[in-house]
Amino acid sequence: MLERAHQYLKDKLDYPLETKDTDYKSAVKFDEQTDFAAKLVKHILGFANSGGGYIIVGFREKANKIPEPDPAITEEIVPSYEVTRLCQHVEKYLLGQDRIKIEIPKIASSQRVTYPIISIGRFPEYPFVCTKGYVSKSSGEPILESGQIYIRTEGARTLTVKAPSEWRQLIRECIKASQEIEAKRPTGVSEEEGAKAEEIPREAEKPVSVEKSLGVLDKVEEAEKQFAAWIKNENDNAINEMKSAGFTEGFFKYVIKVPHEPNQIDSRTLLEIARKSECHNTGWPIGVVMTNPEYKPIPLADGIRAIMIGKRSIISDIDSFDYWALNNRGHFFFVRSYEEDATPAQELAKKDKFLWFDIAIWSISEMFCYTSNLCTELNLKQSDNVELTLYYEGLKGRVLSASRHGMLPSIRTTPSVENIYENRLELEVGDIMSKLKDHVYQTTLGLFALFDFTKFDRVTVDSIVDDFLNSRL
User: Fold this and answer.
1) What is this structure's pTM?
2) Nearest Cα residue to 29 out of 88, 87, 90, 70
3) Domain housing 407
4) Is residue 457 part of a domain?
5) In this structure, are 245 and 349 located in the same domain?
6) Are 428 and 330 within one domain?
7) Are 138 and 287 in a shared domain?
8) How far apart are the C-alpha atoms of 161 and 155, rounded to whole Å?
9) What pLDDT was estimated at residue 149?
């Protein structure tokens, strides 16, 4: 049995891949006073609340996100990971709770390099709750927060339990633990003994913060229903307004879903948030706040909304349709008609309709920047996660082209046979701008592939993102 377990861990060294039950960390010496040690605690709590798992120290992440051996692993680093020392550090953040079962075998890979592997067991009965906070010494952002429950998701991420899907995962783990406890109870107990056992109060053993956290599940699910209803209402309203105004060729849509916020934001504050979230890299920003009566945002019971139909300016010949709404919980909804459908160039192209790839890259870059600005104005933490949905409709029959004549003179694609493209992303707030070019490139891959399998090289995409970032209007 021990030999099989040893081989199982050795395979994780020889064929590294981050999964729900396995994480890889750089070759860093264990020191209780560092941010790295606090992050280890967070991951250990996440694994313990998600069925257990392994943290392998001594691997770095390649550009393709696949772990590879970190050449910095040394004989000094490996012995710094000692069970008693690590357990004592973890227990500082688990006041009044059971101990997490931790083992640290030192396993050698096929290349004869030894790595410390932190093996974490599942919680015995109740989920572990962090009881002490820790703030990063470098960024000032919280790494650990008192009262929070962490889990490890199927996407190989350690998150604070907030969304209904995360609560459901945690509840499933609680049910498994309860079933195992019941299975281990001795059989053949008399009714009198069983009755006495039932009288023993066990609720006092349960951390109060867990009780409170589980109690908010209904509220979180209700918030999800309200979000879905709000999105449907805004989408239906936007489509009706757009068709009534004569824009029937297609549109693109962005939806930003922020973490559940129990307190509603008043309309005056929402208006100020909308103003400050605008990106001033273009003359017609996403979510632009106008002041003239016809286009200015209006207050609603569940947020604010703006509808703009017509010429973008007195010097512009572009007819456009813009619709955006900012929810009183901080969610954002945006729809815009295709600029390509209202230009002289399009009128000359009787056979084909366009999708300008450079404008798409530009607007997607702006969408990420707007999301980052909105998160800042909503006072979200860098570790918070937001959900971003991109939706393009009316693609069927369009060909890929460029708005700037001669940019790529050889490009000529066959028309798209797909009418809709949708991409849903989950982003950590702190990664939105730091990984902007990565996000834009990955997001556009699927969109452009609908046009004759087109794939632009990274240099081309990055240069257009730079054009957007360097523009200021």
Assistant:
1) 0.63
2) 70
3) 230-470
4) yes
5) yes
6) yes
7) no
8) 14
9) 94
Please identify, among 114, 130, 164, the residue that sits at the C-terminal boundary of a domain: 164
Residue 176 lies in a domain: no
How far apart, in Å, are the Cα atoms of 428 and each of 24, 157, 158, 380?
Answer: 19, 11, 11, 10
Give the pLDDT band of residue 179 (cuts 50, 70, 90). confident
User: Measured on CA atoms in the order 349, 352, 358, 361, is the torsion positive or negative?
Assistant: positive
Per-residue 3-state assignment (H helix, E strand, C coil) for 27-65: CCCCCCCCHHHHHHHHHHHHHHCCCCEEEEECEEECCCC
Residues 267, 273: Cα–Cα separation, whole Å: 10
Structure tokens at 237: 């309203």
As a whole number of angstroms, the distance between CA 308 and CA 298 comes to 12
Mean pLDDT to the nearest integer, 304-321:
71
Each as own residue / partner, the long-range contacts of residues 447-451 (CB below 8 Å, 24 or more positions apart, any chain) are: 447/360, 447/390, 447/392, 447/421, 447/423, 448/357, 448/360, 448/400, 450/395, 450/416, 450/418, 450/421, 451/355, 451/398, 451/399, 451/400, 451/413, 451/414, 451/415, 451/416
Determine the pLDDT at residue 401.
86
Residues 159 and 263 in one domain: no
Q: Are 307 and 415 in a shared domain?
A: yes
Whether 54 maps to a domain, the answer reads yes
With beta carbons less than 8 A apart as the criterion, state whether 109 and 115 touch: yes
Give the pLDDT confidence score for residue 328 in this predicted structure.
Answer: 95
Highest mean pLDDT among 1-5, 118-122, 344-348, 402-406 belongs to: 118-122
Last residue within a domain, chosen from 146, 164, 182: 164
Do residues 415 and 290 both lie within one domain? yes
**DSSP code, position 359:** H
Q: Identify the CATH number of the domain in which residue 106 sits.
A: 3.30.950.30
Q: Is residue 203 part of a domain?
A: no
| Predicted confidence (pLDDT) at residue 75 exceeds the cutoff of 90 | no
**pLDDT above 60: residue 193:** no
Instruction: Give the position of tokens 């001669």.
Output: 406
401 or 364: which leads in pLDDT: 364
Q: How many structural domains compose the chain?
A: 2
Please check the confidence at residue 177 and state whether its pLDDT lies above 70: yes
Q: What integer is the mean pLDDT of 290-316?
A: 82
Distances, alpha carbon 286 to alpha carbons 41, 219, 280, 333, 384, in Å:
40, 31, 9, 10, 23
Q: What is the mean pLDDT of the chain?
A: 86
